[in-house]
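Title: Request for sanity check on C-type cytochrome prediction

Description:
We are preparing a figure and want to confirm that the structure record we downloaded matches what your pipeline produces today. Could someone re-run it with the sequence below and paste the raw structure tokens into this thread? We only need the token string, no images.
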Amino acid sequence: MTGATPQSALHSAGPVADTLLGVTGLLSAGAALILLGVMALLVVAVRRREGTLNVRLWLLGGGVVFPVVVLTALFAYSEWHRPPWQPVPPKNALIVGVTGHMWWWEVRYRDPATGAEVVTANEIRIPVGRPVYFGLGSADVIHSFWIPALGGKMDMLPGRVQHLRLQADRPGVWRGQCAEYCGEQHARMALHVVAQAPAEFDAWLAAQARPAVPAEALSPALARGREAFLANRCNACHTVRGVSETSRLGPDLTHVGSRLYLGAGTVPNDADGRAAWVAHTQALKPGARMPSSHARLDDATLRSIADWLGHLE
């Protein structure tokens, strides 16, 4: 599953997005009708002789009565179709915590088997047909969480937790984007939502809760990558559970090999993409907090690190 649908609110994939699309369609159709009406009245006004129009009547009708009727009808329609909001998550909801960083996304789940927290990055997996209740925050500046195909956006504010409820009606991959300018790499702060069948999601979450592949299970080539990762202090910023768990500065890489993209949607997570990301981070995403490594590490070492990361599925 690698192809994401277009990042568009016109490709709705859930009840909230369906509602927003319906309201948008109604507003667009209404605006078109009003424009046609205004143009027709303009033609009539041009053809009528001067002094034959009741100016006061037209001002009262077109400037007061018509806007009041239209805006009241739109307000009633939008309230009728407004998605139900609950101050607390429904009982069957999946609760997901998302924190915005400059420029990546931290994602947290609760392991139902142990109650332990499961941390991933830049990719959100959800079960189809089950409401998802997001707790949204920021670690630095104002970000905004927006998955157009699934619903509306919500700002992410430092020191405050916002909430948003979304749901996917079918399996698929949808691209999201930070919708609030947050700095140099705002345009490359994307994320992907992967909707899976409930059983498939449960299996994925159980796998994410486990630590990384133990060292004794690695081939000699992959073991060299693991040792290079530690020797070059990549673990100063990144946690890999079961290998090094002392830092929270960068994305958790415990199961990075199972993600679709690296660098918050910057490059595909394949062998070439991983190698390019480790070696030329600043060329691919200028301003990212992770330095490029090509100037201080040889190609063999860089490739071994990239291969080991890809093995962490």
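Thanks, this matches our download. The chain has a mean pLDDT of 90.
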